[in-house]
Amino acid sequence: MITSCQLHQLKPGQKAIITRVGGPSALRRRFVEMGIVKGETILIERNAPLGDPVEYFIKGYHLALRKEEAAQIEVQLFGGAE
Amino acid sequence: MNNSTTSPLFRLDYGGKLEREIAKLLAAFEEHKFDTGRYPKRWLAIKLLEADADVMERVQTVPNSASVLALAKQGAEHIKDMLGDDVDLVTADRRYGYINGVVRQSLQRPLMDRITLTDHIDNIVTHKWLGLPVFFAVMYVVFRLVIDVSSPFLDWTDAVINGPIANWFRFILNLTAAPAWIHSLVIDGIVAGVGGVLVFVPGLLILYFFLALLEDSGYMSRAAFVMDRFMRVVGLHGKSFIPMILGFGCAVPAVYATRTIASRRDRILTALLVPLMSCSARLPVYVVFGLAFFGARAGTVIWAMYALGILVAMLAGLVFTRTILKPDVSSAFVLELPPYRSPSMKSVLIHMWENTREFVRKAGTMILASSVILWLLLNLPWGVSEQRDSYFGKVSGAISPLFAPLGFGNWETGGALVTGFMAKEIVVSTMSQIYLGGEEAEVPEATTLGEDLIGIGQGFLEATISSGKILLSIIPGVNLVDEEVEREDTALSIALRNNFTPLSAAALLVFVLLYVPCVATLGAIKHEFGSSWAVTSALYQTAVAWIAAFIVYQGGRLLGLG
């Protein structure tokens, strides 16, 4: 089953495919520059000690985003919890 | 693809709609005889559709550009209507799509990701429970290193400038039979001013060394990751934490440390809040007043000053975030956590040298200039003998009524606060000079050049040794440093008790904590962000200081503490 949700709702260890990148255009530009584009696979690695921001693994590197910004990214969960 | 005439071997297809707009623009280039210069035509057409700010600016100077630019704008709007996205996002999408295709065809990734050393380190430094303790431990060590290890060298610099170097100038001036006022200008104005700049140098060198280490090793990004949630409460960025911590030592290096923050808005907000962290120069003021008025409770009073500074910084952060420094997209937290690397010593040393040199050049000019101005104020009108009659005394007298509602409206305090603008610790020395009369100028012992040089060398050696001892005492349980016994300056305490009540003393401490950052800090803010932010910093802090001291003094009187 494929479930669509926002990136910030996922838990560490989950893996997803990006389906849509939203937000104001300047923010989308930042995302695109960092390789956050439709079709990319993204792994949720860990929350910061205070819960936010969250560390992701995408395109072979580690990236930290605040939940507020991650909420602009829509994803499809990859085969449930692994 | 440097040459616009050769046809490229590869051309990415951006899709029918976008390709049509590109073709239209290329036709327009021909039609208007538009000179694309050294840019390939297709590349330029794409950049114009993307509305690339840099390219647009360059193109504006080319003849016939207006009609081409208008056409590009129209095309970009047309694309946005049809595809619902800005052209630069559409093109980026196409490019990544193509790259993904190539990668999928040619690269085979192992199924299991290799666990790297970086992953192992990150498992500890960004760990749910360990992350914060590790961060605070790193900050503690860096803070101790920057502040404590540099302090023997700072004293050494100070001693060399005010000892041998001042003496050499005196010696040369004596040879030229220059009038007394030139002596005074050179020694008390210029040499003292240059000294005021150079005492920061040892601290800055050590600070930049460690900042470069943290940054180049990759830990800085982790620190930002760990602290971001906490700093965001007051509108700051995770990376703002390090400058704030350094502010407890000295605001000047702390303002420069904001350079590690990417967004200009976040940097400015951090620099505006840093001077509210109670720097080490303010401590002597707290100690002298604390011991004179609060005796055994002096420690609590000093602690309260530090806490008040942090509290005011948090409130000011909230206010700025909602008024003149609203968060913008540049503040978005999109941060790469790079693999750990061992920093290159060469790059660390270059970083250290260039930043320090820039401080001496830029902030230094401002400190030197204000030192000379202060000297002029103290010595004019011509031949003035009493401080009270100099322009300095007049200025102090003129502004002192402003402080009356705060409980310290006399010219002596006004004067001490004016000199405190040079450096906050001077508040105490000015008061002792005014209340107790200036100490007789020490007649320097006659020394030869050789003795001086040996003395300078010995001093440096001693500074290195005591700095080494301090370095070792950072290790818990090791203590090689003799605690300095705080001598109570009884004469000054008595004089202060005659002029202040405990309540007005408390109000004065609050004022000294919060009022205008010292000239060196303002110099650094001006250097980094321009005059208007330096003025903002000076005005808002003075206003906040006045209000806070007013509340303390008048509130205290209402409660019957006066």
User: What is the third-level CATH name, the topology of chain A?
Assistant: SH3 type barrels
The assigned structural class of chain A equals: alpha+beta
Beta-strand content of chain B: under 5%
Number of strands of chain B: 1
Largest sheet of chain A: 6 strands, antiparallel
Termini gap of chain A: 14 Å
- Taken from the alpha-carbon principal axes, the silhouette of chain A is globular
Please report the number of helical segments of chain A. 2
Chain-averaged pLDDT of chain A: 86
SSE string of chain B, helices as H and strands as E: HHHHHHHHHHHHHHHEHHHHHHHHH
Total E-strand runs of chain A: 6
What is the radius of gyration of chain B? 30 Å
**Assigned CATH superfamily of chain A:** Ferrous iron transport protein A (FeoA)
Record the strand order, biggest sheet of chain A: 1-6-2-3-4-5
**How many angstroms does the end-to-end distance of chain B come to?**
80 Å
What's the level 1 CATH class of chain A?
Mainly Beta
Helix content of chain A: 10-25%
State the assembly state of the protein chains: heterodimer
Could you walk me through the main structural features you see in this protein, from its secondary elements to its overall organization?
The complex is a heterodimer of chains A (82) and B (562). Chain A has 82 residues and is of the alpha+beta class. Chain A has one domain: Ferrous iron transport protein A (FeoA) (SH3 type barrels, Roll), CATH 2.30.30. Chain A contains 2 helices and 6 strands. A 6-stranded antiparallel β-sheet of chain A has the order 1-6-2-3-4-5. Chain A is globular, with a radius of gyration of 12 Å. Chain B is mainly α and 562 residues long. Chain B has 2 domains: 91 residues, Orthogonal Bundle (Helix Hairpins), CATH 1.10.287.1770; 379 residues, no CATH class. Helices cover 69% and strands 1% of the residues of chain B. Chain B contains 24 helices and 1 strand. In chain B, helix 7 runs antiparallel to helix 8, helix 12 runs parallel beside helix 23 and helix 16 packs across helix 23. The longest helix of chain B is centred in the N-terminal third of the chain and has 46 residues. The radius of gyration of chain B is 30 Å and the shape is elongated. About 1% of the residues of chain B have low confidence.
